[in-house]
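Entry type: protein chain
Record version: 2
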Amino acid sequence: MAREQDPMHRGIGMTSQRTRERLIQRLYEEGISNAKVLEVIRRTPRHLFVDEALAHRAYEDTALPIGNNQTISQPYMVARMSELLLEAGPLDKVMEIGTGSGYQTAILSQLVERVFSVERIKVLQDRAKERLVELNLRNVVFRWGDGWEGWPALAPYNGIIVTAVATEVPQALLDQLAPGGRLVIPVGSGEVQQLMLIIREDQGFSRRVLGSVRFVPLLNGPLA
């Protein structure tokens, strides 16, 4: 009987550890300084979140296609957005808009107490669920629905992260932020997209623009 392969190593060769270490070194050199974020990215097998045909590129610092006109985000962007969420300290309740491959979800699940992830493409959501179960990451709850609406029934959230670019900041997401809560979101369209950090404060919201980014669009409505 063939021995079942460790899921942490499926789809990649003997250079796995070296390629992961090179990725972590690159993220550090590009300004990612949160040691916990770097360690979680180091130990999370990104190759499980892409097609096996692309597994050899899993530890490159680049976005990769995952089907349905969607991509798995560049590791730097996953690290940067996670770091921004945690800038003010630990979080216990985070909503993710755009489950996609489940890679950002897996990173978040190891950094915060609970993750509530919303995805409009059911087949992507189902694959992501399977991957997280395979990795024994069980503090994530999924919703199939419209990311523009968030998940109001379970609000408020200490943090919200959006993994697709919105043409404007959805009011529903602002409404679902807890006092002091942080929203990390790319805003814009086409070639002009900016990553923003929005914090709910006593007298409203503060906003920081953090630089140019490139994401797939945040679309409306569920899609089977």
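Comment: The beta strands are 64-67, 70-72, 93-97, 114-119, 140-144, 157-162, 177-189, 192-201, 204-212.
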